[in-house]
Amino acid sequence: MSEQTVQVKTTGKILQSPCGPIIHGLEDVLIKSTSISDIDGEKGILWYRGYRIEELARLSTYEEVSYLILYGRLPTKRELEDYINRMKKYRELHPATVEVIRNLAKAHPMFALEAAVAAEGAYDEDNQKLIEALSVGRYKAEEKELAYRIAEKLVAKMPTIVAYHYRFSRGLEVVRPRDDLGHAANFLYMMFGREPDPLASRGIDLYLILHADHEVPASTFAAHVVASTLSDLYSSVAAAIAALKGPLHGGANEMAVRNYLEIGTPAKAKEIVEAATKPGGPKLMGVGHRVYKAYDPRAKIFKEFSRDYVAKFGDPQNLFAIASAIEQEVLSHPYFQQRKLYPNVDFWSGIAFYYMGIPYEYFTPIFAMSRVVGWVAHVLEYWENNRIFRPRACYIGPHDLQYIPLEQR
Ligand SMILES: CC(=O)SCCNC(=O)CCNC(=O)[C@H](O)C(C)(C)COP(=O)(O)OP(=O)(O)OC[C@H]1O[C@@H](n2cnc3c(N)ncnc32)[C@H](O)[C@@H]1OP(=O)(O)O
Ligand SMILES: O=C([O-])CC(=O)C(=O)O
User: Fold this and answer.
1) Where in the chain is the domain with CATH 1.10.580.10?
2) Whose atoms come closest to the Cα of 222: which ligand?
3) pLDDT tens, position by position, for the chain (409 residues)?
4) Does the keyword Transcription regulation apply (predicted)?
5) Ligand 1 in contact with 374 (CB < 6 A)?
6) From 59, 202, 208, 361, which residue has the greatest number of CB atoms within 10 Å?
7) Alpha-carbon dihedral of residues 20, 23, 25, 29, nearest 10 degrees?
8) Whose Cα sits closest to atom 2 in ligand 2?
9) Is 317 exposed, middle or buried (0-12, 13-18, 19+ CB in 10 A)?
10) What phi and psi values does residue 120 have, to the nearest 5 degrees?
11) In ligand 2, which atom is closest to the CA atom of 220?
């Protein structure tokens, strides 16, 4: 067997072990080549398929951006129309999935989303065909066509799952998807049963654009790990949802707004920020990033939107004012400056949602509604050159212990 020495350039934390250095949290470890998204963490720049996020946020829609991420280029007018029409056809859920969501009405919606995606996969005939093919190692043109159709279905169905959960959790009847509304507007319509305010629809659309992909964070990596075993796309997405839920990742958007609500006044910002700098103190949610050592470009864009939103609809709970005061403290505090910790995308994202009447438990599910396209695009990219993920751990326990029968212990 040939041995190769691989050097990993990391500025991250290394743990020493008897077997050699451990790159804690896989910081800077490359898992594949990608042409989906790129991040310049030092300068705070994000590209999807070569386009700057600012450009897409200003000029595009989630429908167009999700097509771009999935298919690698911007669609023609005709391609976009066909894509949108297919998505509208796929919005409905299998009746068994609706029952799963109903049964989890009292659970946090991220649990329901995870279970509903798995359920939808169990009932999708295309998925069964793909599973059969993958089980004999076949992934050719026909299977790729199935995989892309499943990817589109996943993107189309996520808002229906989230909105249905909201309706069931409030004891309301579901509102069926409406074909004449776009992805973002239809989502708000299914949540609240009325045509949304155009600024609210724009806010959801903008948020969906900004969250569509981000290279390989924990959730996308989780999707790769599952997909690398040749498990199916729905299961890979369910795993990604599970990873996104944590407060160190997508769950931070919910936690950030809950903190602002708890704080209640901008006057407490200094105290809260100071507490986060103490050893063992609570981390400030929505601050810091593994890759960005500069202001997160998505946070900048959504901050502007939140400012516009509260300018129109007010800031009765002081959420924008509190976040602004915290941001000011963070940016001027040596603790955060030395560690290059800046507000991330989760810092501002929940404020406008909260004022749209969306309960904070639904913030992370909306993140998942957007990121699903990144997850599936990455899995499809990885399947072009699949190899099972199987790292190693350095065993530091004892060996060859003598088994003592139960009655002698
Ligand atoms: C969509 C997203 O997933 S964006 C991220 C959302 N998550 C959050 O907002 C949660 C808060 N932030 C964090 O927990 C972290 O910054 C993460 C998880 C985002 C990144 O974690 P890592 O890259 O592992 O950074 P790490 O935890 O090593 O932090 C480096 C240093 O900054 C400190 N630090 C990092 N984030 C924060 C924070 N939010 N508040 C206070 N201190 C922080 C750490 O304590 C550590 O200090 P030390 O060097 O003195 O030990
Ligand atoms: O890249 C990360 O680690 C987390 C993040 O910002 C995202 O997934 O959008």
Assistant:
1) 62-201+215-245
2) 2
3) 457 777 777 778 999 999 999 999 999 999 999 999 999 999 999 999 999 999 999 999 999 999 999 999 999 999 999 999 999 999 999 999 999 999 999 999 999 999 999 999 999 999 999 999 999 999 999 999 999 999 999 999 999 999 999 999 999 999 999 999 999 999 999 999 999 999 999 999 999 999 999 999 999 999 999 999 999 999 999 999 999 999 999 999 999 999 999 999 999 999 999 999 999 999 999 999 999 999 999 999 999 999 999 999 999 999 999 999 999 999 999 999 999 999 999 999 999 999 999 999 999 999 999 999 999 999 999 999 999 999 999 999 999 999 999 999 9
4) no
5) no
6) 208
7) -130
8) 217
9) middle
10) -60, -40
11) 8
Taking CA atoms, 74 is separated from 69, 229, 244, 402, in Å, by 9, 31, 27, 64
Q: How far is the CA of 286 from the centre of ligand 1 (A)?
A: 9
Q: Which of 205, 289, 296, 315 is catalytic?
A: 289
- Does 346 qualify as catalytic in the annotation? yes
- Which residues lie with the beta carbon below 6 Å from any ligand 2 atom? 214, 217, 290-291, 344-345
Counting ligands in written order, the one closest to the CA of 216 is: 2
How crowded is residue 15: how many other Cβ atoms within 10 Å of its Cβ? 10
For 232, residues 6+ apart whose C-beta sits below 8 A from its C-beta are 121, 127, 130, 131, 134, 150
Q: Which CATH class is domain 62-201+215-245?
A: mainly alpha
2: left (phi over 0), alpha (psi -120 to 50) or beta: beta
Region of 250 (left: φ > 0; alpha: ψ -120 to 50; beta: rest) is alpha
Query: How many Å apart are CA 67 and CA 95, to the nearest integer?
Result: 28
For β-strands 45-48 and 37-40, DSSP reports them as: antiparallel
